[in-house]
Amino acid sequence: MLSALPAAAALLFTLQGIATLLFGTTLGIVLGALPGIGSTVAVALVLPFTLTMEQAPAVILLLAVYAGSVYGGSISAILINTPGTPAGAATVLDGTPMARAGRAGEALGWATLASVFGGLVSAMLLLLAAPQLAAFALRFGPIETFALICLGLTCIVTVSKGSVVKGLVAGGLGLFLSSVGGDPITGEVRFTFDQYQLIAGFNLLAVVIGIFAFSEILIRIADGLDSGAADVPFSGLVLPKLSAMKGRFGNLFKSTAIGCGVGVLPGTGSATAAFIAYAEAKRSSPRGALFGKGEPDGIVAAESSNNAVTGGALVPTLALGIPGDVITAVMLATFTLHGITPGVRLMTDNPTLIAAIFLGFFLINLLLLPLGMVVSKLAAPLLRVSEPLMLAAIGVLCVLGVYYVRGNPFDLIVMFSAGVGGFFLRRAGYPMAPLIIGMVLGPAFELSLRQGLIITDGSFTAFMTGHPIALALLALTAIGLLWPVVGQVRAWRAAERSVS
Amino acid sequence: MSRPVGRGERIGVAAVLLVVPLALLLVAWRDQGGDSGLAAFSPLFFPGGVLWGWAAVAAMALVGELLSGRRTVDDAAAPPEPATEVERGVWWRIGIVVLAMLAFVFLVTELGFLLSAIGFTVITLLALGSRSPLTVIAYGVLMPAVLFGLFHHALGLPLPTSPFSYLF
What we know:
The structure holds two protein chains of two kinds. By secondary structure, chain A is mainly α. Chain A has 21 helices and two strands. Chain A has a two-stranded antiparallel ribbon with strand order 1-2. In chain A, β1 and β2 form a beta hairpin. Chains A and B meet through α8, α9, α17, α18 and α19 of A and α1, α2, α4, α5 and α6 of B.
């Protein structure tokens, strides 16, 4: 991987490469700061515009928007008490009290430093861990790949907050949608209902934009539009002095480690990491009693951990083709749309691209500091943009993004249907991340299963008898599926004990 | 602030999610001439298995919805609460925005991107409560025009134009 770094640097240190880094990070910060847009919608909206770009700049642009939007979420969290992303929710707890006390610039300074540190450490983790994991995964044949994707699909359980059953329903729907069209072995078409547009299957991009962006408009209307937020005096970001950092490094390192660890686990996400790190910081900090009243340690814990998740989540995504969270699932969809097959051979087959991603991710996190200082001041007035104006723009971007990629009006109908369907599913509590995970992993899942069955002459038991790695992965899959059930039973028993 | 979703709506969604895979299985069974398609080398092996799995978990979800939040005998005797003015207004807004998007999707190739986008933006702004004519007209025209100009003219990425002029 290191041998590909010079070629990757040559790709990045061009006018286009630098412009992509600067533009993507800036756009990510602005979109992340706008309340309710969030990282997923931001990445989904930008995704179609990358399809006319080369592979490396396209992926770098999306990474920049991803990392920038996670940081950008802290701006609205601190200035208007509304996290731009779920990951920024923990930042509100101490960011808003600091801002209301007239220290908004200082709060944003702490958030920026912690975000940059968390992001840089997670970039190092990505550089060190992903190649090792990918090298191990090179031993995988179709049966091991099938078992690995089974394990990857268990992240449907972890991303299904609220109801595992509903998550599985959405995952089943996603897997089915991925199988519409030509059979990967025989080429025979399935479930196209004589619609020739469906022979190549559903357009993943149209589905992503429909269920994340268009349905978001409808959800926001259903939830009631915001009437506007109170203004907080803000004249620019103020970086904390070195003396103020004394005694906070332990919290910074620990929270970053929590973010990296949580990020590597499939399906957990940055909001989870931020709240775990916040709770741990509150428990262990000598200033724990001040948490919730404007204590910088709270901001440091939340921001360093949620930005550390970004690199952690990319480890299984790049090494194994398993998404670490919903955004990395969309990133995998990007690879597919650019003709790159996600999976265990991703790093071996595309060394320059992957090295460019590593290097680009490092640079993006470095850029957060200067860009955060400039963009936060410029983005602050945007926080007062009324919601109807923002929703109308998202609607126009949905159509623009889906249409201009292939110029196919059928994709617009898919986007519209996915948006309306996604709206009702989301309202009824069905998480949408499993649907995308199912659609992204579905083709490789089916292909490896069918190839495995050809190798074993149709025997499922042979999947486990002669393949120890597959057996271990399937055992982990079973544990992953049973773990929430065990947790639920424990919770019921605890509730029964407390009642009795 | 998230509004609670009615039990009837949740049950309806769960029922649809059960009926769809069962209907698709029926179609597959009919197309295969009565063969289940579950033989390991059949093209319908994978989607058939997925549909059975989907139907199974959808049935569990439906049962869960039916069992959760069951009204007591006293509740059942009481008439259901009527939809408030706010709730009715919200559904009207959603309906208008959905119809505006549907029209946008179908008209984009007929009227061109710019005109259909202007129509969508103006209708959406009015439906969402923007009452300043200046804001509605200025934003409704300028935002789509800037996007169209950027992509179609500046970046050279062709978008559909109207029957009236190749410029828009």
